[in-house]
Fold each of these.
Amino acid sequence: TGVVASATNVTDAFIQVARTDGTIIGTVVVPRFGPRQLSTAFSVPLTAVPVGDNGRADLRLTLRNGTDDSVCGPVPEVALTSLNVAFRGAATVPATIQDAFGTVVNRVTVYTPEDPSAAAAQTTLGVVAAIANHYRPQRVAIDVVESADARLPRAASPLDRAVVIREEGGAGSVRLERAGLPGAVLVISGDQDSLPDQVALFRDGLTDLAQTDSAAVESVGDREVQGSDSVTFGEFSDRLSVEALGTASLVPGFDPTILALGRPGAVDVALKARYTPVRDDERANVMAVTGGEILHTSALNASGSLDTKFTIPAAQVAANEPLEFRVSYEPAPGACSPRSVPLTFQIDPSSTASSSTTPVRMGGFSSVPLGWQPTVQVALDNTNPAQLDAAAELLASVQRSSATALSPVLVPLDQAIASNTGALVVADAANARPLNPPINTEDSSTLVDLAAQIRLAIPDGLGTIQAFSQNSRTVVLVSTSGSWDLVDPLFAYLDDQQGDLANLRGDVLVAGRAGQPELMTVRADGPQAEVDQVGTSWVTWLGISAAVIVLGVLVVVAVMLYRRRFGDSNGPDNSATS
């Protein structure tokens, strides 16, 4: 379902919805938009669309325009919004661990003990990150509930899943209780040593091996840092070609998180491509664009091949700005007709994107996915029982924006404050003060770190989610200088926006007692090129430099006087006494 929101340069148009084999399964009529025409809803049944081995159902949408000069005239444009897919079939009841997390799931509820131990909390965070990564980029609601009830819960819907974390003696295990029956529940159990190890079954994609209702992870070795400093286009994308008659865009889907850059730098792109040869009386070019900035332009010619290089700036890499190629093709004058053949442009899969070491300051929400690669420390000060659920929700949000599986590690608050590893901290504002966030507290005052630091008195306090650079790493802080219910509107805002944390602008999401969330930029609207702080040491160096210059001048003057008095020889002129 969706809405035809607007249309320009179209007449008697409709959109064909087809399978990848060309079979048409439905059409969407594009209305004539005028003063009285509003957006129009549409619905297309997808029953006949097969689901591939990758768990994906692919569709092809083609605009058919009735205007005769649509080929050579203005480019027709139709905007579709509010796209949604609703599942109406019979849900399969999981019979093994392998199919506990099927292709389609609405909600996952993770039940953990009340006042969970470090092992139980670590396991909960690991399971949440693994589930979010499994369904990425789909939005699957994941809730964490602390419960003292020993009975197995029941899912509210066939498309919901329940996971129970139990800390108990003995070896660790993963069991599917009520296997093959409605309300099947996944139980992860073990002691303080073996319980966190069970997460590896889901984190490392090994559930396909668990074609049974019980399994156990006996041991887990040290996890090596994933990623590489170079990746080919063929590794991260299957969208490598486009046809252009006029202008067309190709977004290959480059995601710098696949490089697992904890401290990202610029990315050097070596682009190779093949295209339809361009005659002398035709014009064609390709532009590389990211974040609204044109990085490189290449003219296309009769050779039919392109081999060029350009660099994506470090700040745009850190913000995960999409890389786009805009291909334009203009046939010879007077040659454009409905029979004109478009230019085909295809990127060679062996083209590479390689990272450099140029540092950036990782401030702002858009820097979070890269700033947490691949390990993120999680610290809770336990001043509120809902902190584990808040941490889990933000972990899932960031994981949806990262191609690399996150590795959350639960640590004490003081360790997270002093560390140089990316961190998620959920703590009272007074306890988080040493992190020096953009909005901080000091006694009863709120400090806003603008160019001129401003001190405010906010009697009821503020709830905040902040993303900032500290100790040369990225920190996300969930905090309150009042009661913890001040934070609730911030998470409701994230849910209502249907967007992930990394898509927000600025570095502070804040709400006061009125419960109105506001996005702010206090320090940074995103990653910035890192510049050494000037400080006051320049005064000392200026004094030293001035002294050196003065000393140099004195030496020059002494030499000149010496030469004037004694001549240009190596010693005094003794000719008068010879």
Note: DSSP finds nine helices and 34 strands in the chain.
Amino acid sequence: MGDRIPLPYDANSKLDQLMDDSTPVLVGAGQFIEKNVLPDKAQPPVGISSLAAMEALADSGIGAELAHQIDTVIAVRLILDSTNRPRLEIPFGRAENPPRAIARRIGANPVNAIYGNVGGNTPQMYVNEMAERISNKEVDVALIAGSEAIKTAQLALRNEIDLDWHEEDAGSMEDRGLGEKLITPHEFTYGIGVPIQSYPLFENALRAHQGNSIELHMQQLGELFEPFSKVAASNPYAFFGKRRNAQELITVTPDNRFICFPYPKWMNAMDGVNQGAAIIMTSVGKARELAIDPKKWVFIHGCGEANDKLTMSQRVNYYSAPALKLNVQKALTMAGKKIDDIDYFDLYSCFPSAVEIACKEMGIAYNDSRGLTVTGGLPFFGGPGNNYSLHAIASMLPLLRADPNRLGLVTANGGYLSKHATGIYSATPWESKWQRENPTSYQPEIDEMPSPSFSETPNGGGTIETYTVSFNKGVAERGIVIGCLAANGERFVANTPSDSALLLAMTQQEQVGRPGTVDSSNGMNTFIPL
């Protein structure tokens, strides 16, 4: 556990000399947004990342001089490269070596070029990794950058504009691939594994666990997300900065149609954006050598990482995230702090259930006076693929520099509440040797939790554990059920019949705990409620 040095301090003070030269520190952060630009004039994804990186270099105070010192570049993985079944086919080519394409644009020539794996947890995970490698003197100066240009791609496809995004850059690249397997083919058959259809499963389970009516819970969702919308409206880097009140968010209209029950459109992460963010990390010793103003330094006081049971069918339940709780506890313990000591939060906010469950696991109220975001949330700020949390970190830095006695906590989530990473930041220096607990030492606490056994071919009576109804352009088209067999408690997944009256009823009356029968025939499981 590190010690927090009382402020004020300066680079020539005795207290400053107590800081170990290997202490990791963030020295630059930048963001970039591109709106209202014709596709043929717009930046490709690596161009947006590079412009964010240029902002981070400028933020450090020494600009190009720092670019020449970068020995490691991590590019956060693009949505285009994040699945074997991309939602949006983009026929414009791509940068074959994203980290080196970014490096070339900013005048860097790194030894290490890393293309990250999949997950919204990865920006914070790579901050944690780079902090450790800097502390161990394996890395000197690291740039983490990421972006999406999905809005440009959508506009180009819609208007039949051909773009050339193909780039090749010489040099090595460590491609970390798709990462952990988060869904099974069986789950995918029934609509599980698509975020817009998976997070509502958590929401409906949480509502039933809380004992809320559907009407009361919808009001709760609107009140939860209204402040996110307010923060986004004042954030110049937000892509969807219109302020919306709670009633607007929960009222289903043609412009705010249901996507999957209970979420109308504006409760879903919005990935049609052109946004990028970047941060630069180094050591205290290197920052001194480069004469980077200590007022720019932000320290990592705590960090943690843990994964919940990775596939949906293995989850302990659908209203908690034990790994989120554990990794936040580890970050707080490292920082020597309690959750009440945190001044600023940015909770990963792709869908309301992600925020609600994070609050539950962290022990904070939905209406905590400190606020739950400094960025604005993925439905309102924008959801740039795997990179949202890098924007959260970049948004946190100026707040902490303005008052070095304050602490900021960022949570990052990958998959379907599957992979979690946390960082606790402050401009108050870290005095002792920086060291984190290896996540592999506590991951077994989650892995060893019991999960219900699972059947791919269920037959007989059962009850609904959680469910959702998916919509197509405002029309209900499929009921998705996770249930438990009455005979042996085995968990199963199924679809309901595509009966419009049944699907409508499933959006109006509580279904969790409802009995029915499930039949497995012709390669499909069908659940018929009684």
Note: Residues 214-233 form the longest helix (20 residues).
Amino acid sequence: MFKALDSFQSAIVELGIARPKLIIMSALVLTIVLLVALVLRVEVDTDPENMLSSSNPVRVLNHDIAEEFGTRNMLVLGIVVENGVLNPGTLANAGRLVADIKALSRVNGEGVLSFASVSEIPEGDLTDEDVDRIAADLAANPVLSGRVISEDGTSLAVYIPLREKGDVNEVTAEVKDLLAVHTMLGGGDHYLAGLPLAEEKFGRDMFIQMALLAPLAGMLIFLLMLYFFRKLILVVAAMLVAMLSVVWAMGLLTGTGFTLHIMSSMIPIFLMPIAVLDSIHILSEFFEKYPQSRDRSTTLRTVYKELATPITFTSLTTAAAFASLALAPIPPVQVFGLFVAFGVFCAWLLTMLFLPAFIMLLGEEGLQRSLKGDAESGSRVLTNGLKGLGRFAVGKPWVLPVVFIVLAAAAIPGMMKVEVNDNPVRWFKSGSEMRVATEEFNRRYPGVYNASLIIDGADPETLTSPEMVSELLALQDRLSEISFVGQVTSYANLVAAGPESVPKTDDEIVSSLDSVFDSPQGIYAGGLISEGYQRANVQISMKNGDNKSMQRVLDETDAFFAARPLPAGTTAERAGETYLNLVWQDKMVSGMLKAFISTFVIVFVLMIVLFRSVRWAVLAILPLSATILLVYGVIGFTGKDYDMPIAVLSTLVLGIAIDFAIHFIQRYRALAEEEASFSLALARVYEEPARAITKNALIVALGFVPMFFASLTPYIVVGIFMASIMVLSWVVSLALLPSIITLFQRGAARRAEA
């Protein structure tokens, strides 16, 4: 098997050495084609619905109730007037503003909800009597009371239904223009919130982040490589490998019709550092050996003979980790995983083919001039430090394993504290415009996070029975006792002010509903019960949209129905955006667990194949196991939730954290065959191989640093998490592995003497 692999790898490298111009031109043509596909066909998608397949039951139900109950995506306008909104001047201006908003072509005017939906607003100036009448009408309205004017009377809200979700940006701009026209209102503080606006802003910021952070990461990687190698032309070669990998992956993604989601927007950030890993190993070894032969092709063949197999296996493990995300039942995550895996394959192919071709085109004399001098002049401190670490690990082999055992044991309680939770609004940094607007709305009103409970009656008489109305009011009271639930509304509020006022007969309830539908309030009554009175929509407004909060509402609802079952044949289904977010998060967690287990098995099998030894395979996975324990221990102790970025990265740890262990063990075993003792072999590992591993770790870890300064929290989490993984796996590989090898070898020697 390995002979066939060696022959295959040698053939690829030989092609790069023998036909450099053909390889470079072919890569250039392919890059241009895929770059054109990237530019011309790119589309953005930040809709949380698309985290689930179009056939998912929750998504289908959400679409059904949107049609049946007329629910639409809402933009919410809040206006704050500190001296109060319940005065003739403010309400008159607000009434004119609402009328202008209703007239906007992209707004479903009939569905606009405000104080004007409850009480008739006279044209022209208002009187104090008009204000008192409006306030009284609002107080008596069970659906809009507290929702359109805050309880403290200092702000008013306008709920603006969009004809199309994609119109939110244009409607937002038009509403801001109207606020400027109605200066009396525009002079007060105002804020705009709502899921469609959050999604649109996230999509816009996502592009900005990708456009800024990917080049910054690339520039930082370039500068670090230049500092370590001091050879501009060869550093350019490694950067070309990285950039071509990114363009090929992103070009194929958009060219095949996939949209850019939050996950796929991170592909360049992931690929840029990962794609240079193999190039750094090749360049480091090339610098070491070229001065001895002064011949490009000879040096390249020697370098690739030593490094081709570990490079292939590290690429396989990394690609396997990303490709395993295809097991997650979340379409954007599947796309992300598969295309990063493709990018990793491209990086491997370019390292094996493009890099030697590039070096061959430099010319022998020019290459010798570029490599003139000490290739390691800028890293003596690094070299001495690594040798010191090696001497300590070999000289006192019990110390570091004990330290890691203690740290791992301490991390286990932290892992037990990790909780699954997420909230799309928290993808914006604290203090950002979107977070502030959402928090302000949640503070003044029942809440911007919505969910629904759809009650489907067994027959038309089920929902109009006094018993059902009483049960719904009781359910609403129970859910309203939850601290973060701002309001629970159903059709029961249209026919009864409370349990004591529920009509005694079905006919009275039907009559009450008929009169409401015939009144101006019919527009929002239709959002609570269908025209045939057979299906009801219990609307839940929450001040907190975390998954844990949504689950608390579900648990309380289940407990209520367990104690007080619905009539035979009557069903209750959950719906709404907040519930949908909970569903796809749960699916992601279960999918990530499957991906994690499968990737761990695949990586372990690959290690057995590579080292042809179970013992060495177990040793190879120790660094990644220690890295996982330590990282998740810290996550648990710091209270960081297991959210979307963490869920995805949990699987990627496996493919990335093992890279350094593969190179360390492979190089040690090769050197052990040359040296008379294992200690001499380990000492040699701490020379060029350890320098290459360390440069890789530092370059990749620091390559993620620009993400620390992103305005979107998923990018920040990814940056911190990935940098931590690289540093920890590097430390564990260079500190733990030699200590354990030393203990094994000394134990074997004692057994041999006995």
Note: The two ends are 37 Å apart (CA to CA).
